[in-house]
Amino acid sequence: MTIQRMDNVLIVVEDLDAVIAFFVELGMELEGRGPIEGRWVERVIGIDDVRQDVAMLRTPDGHGRIELAMFHAPKAIRPEPKDAPANTLGMRRVMFAVDDIEDAVARLRAHGAELVGEVMRYEDVYLLCYVRGPEGIVVGLAEQIG
């Protein structure tokens, strides 16, 4: 068996509108949004009495997607610590290639994002940084310079 592609990454959020706006500002496109509930989803995710709203965003090239889910029932559970450092077990960030890292950081700051560290040069190949956006979501940005 061989995988065909990575389809999407799921991020559970409390403020769906704010997180959609953040990723749209980054350059993703909203594919769709709507409620999800019923026995089929309960059986897939292994949680009873599920009611949620989901949104699917795609990268401009059409190959990458992020699915956002806001649970109405049962309520989402917050991990600890809230703003976990990069060495915490589990998924830590999603990385995007950007044309202009300084511009991307400035636009995301208007949506509450803050640099985690600094914008740094990796050899003569990339400028890299991490930003923490709404709900503590960490996004990596990479501008190719070489």
Mean pLDDT: 94
Number of helices: 3
Q: What is the approximate shape?
A: globular
- Give the termini separation: 37 Å
Number of strands: 9
Poorly predicted segments: none
Which band does the percent of strand residues land in?
35-45%
H and E order: EHEHEEEHEEEE
* Class derived from helix and strand content: alpha+beta
Determine the fraction of residues in helical runs and give it as a percent range: 10-25%
Radius of gyration: 16 Å
- Quick one: biggest sheet? 5 strands, mixed
Describe this structure in a few short sentences.
The protein contains 3 helices and 9 strands.
Keywords:
4-stranded mixed β-sheet; alpha+beta; globular; 146 residues; 9 strands
